[in-house]
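Usage

Read records sequentially. Each one opens with the input sequence:
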Amino acid sequence: MSDGVFMATAPLTPPFDVREQQALHMRRFNRFYTRQIGLLNEGLLNSPFSLTEVRTLYELAHRERSTAVELCKELGLDAGYLSRILRKFERQRLIEKNVSRQDGRQSLLSLTQKGRKVFHPLEARSTAQVSLIIGKLPPAQRENLVGAMQTIESILAPGSAERKSADGKSTGRAYVLRSHRPGDMGWVVYRHGILYSQEYRYDERFEALVAEIVAEFVENFNPAREHCWMAESDGQIVGSVFLVEKSKTVSKLRLLLVEPSARGMGIGKRLVAECIRFARKAGYKTMMLWTQSELTAARKIYQGAGFQVVGEKTHDSWGRKNLVAETWKLKL
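and closes with the structure output:
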C-alpha cells in the first residue's frame, strides 16, 4: 500500500539496522511530498479526475498517437485498470480511437478537442502549483532542488534517465532542460557559428544573423509569450531552441541546435515538443519556422512533429550559392 495513504498504528522503536532507518527516511519523504503537492486529494488539482486519470490525460496530450499497450508500459498500469479509465474517457468524449494504418489490429488513441480543453487547465494548474512552491526559493536553491530530483530519478530508475542512440543503444547519458540565464546567449551565437561553419560551410555572416536574432529576443523578451530552452548533459550545454512571438496568433520556432556529441538522444525532438506545448498553452493558433533544405536531421524532427512545408525560395547567403530556404507551418 502506498506510503501516501498508510500510517503505522503503533510507533516503531529502535534498534533499527541501517536499511530500516533509510527506509523510514524515504517513507517520511514520500509522505511529505504527497502532502506538499496534494496527491492525497480525491480530485487532483480541484478536478473530478484522480492522479492516475490526470497522468493518462498527460501522456495522451503529449503524444500525437498512442496505443493502450504503450500507455500501460509508460504508466506502469494494469491493462484492465487502464481499460476502465479509457472507457470512462470515451464516454465523456475526451478521447477518440482510430485504426492504425500500419496494423489494423491496433487502435491509436488521441485526445479530442474537448479532451484538450479539459486537460489544458489541469496542466496550467499543476504548473502554477509547482511554480508557487519553487518560486519562494532563491535561484541557487531551485537548481539544487531540481538536481536532487534528477539524482533520485537516475538512481531509482537509471533506464528512464538514459537516452537511446539512433540504433537503439543506450548512450549512458541523461539530459535536462532549463530556461536561459546570463551567458547562454553567447553560447548560442558561438556554437551556431562554429557548427554551421564546420557542417555546412556557412561563413561569419550566418553567425552575425544568429547574433541579431538572439539580441532581438533578449531586448523584447516577453516571458508570458516567449521562451528559450537550454539542454544540459553532464553539466554541459548540448542544445537550445527559442519560441518567439510573431503576432498575437502566430509563434515562431527559432535556432534549434543540438551538439554533435548529444545527437541521437532525442534532445531535438524534445526541444521542439516543448515549443509546441508552450505555444498551445500561450494561446497561439499557428507555429512557423524557417530552415534550409539541407538540414535533413532538423527537417525530420519538424515533419515528425506535424509541420508542413508551405514555401520555398532559392538564395545565395553566408558564402554559399543556391541554398533552398523553406518555410514550415504547424496548426496548433
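Summary fields computed downstream for this record:
- Confidence is low (pLDDT under 50) at residues 1-10, 161-172.
- The domain at 175-331 is CATH 3.40.630.30 (Aminopeptidase).
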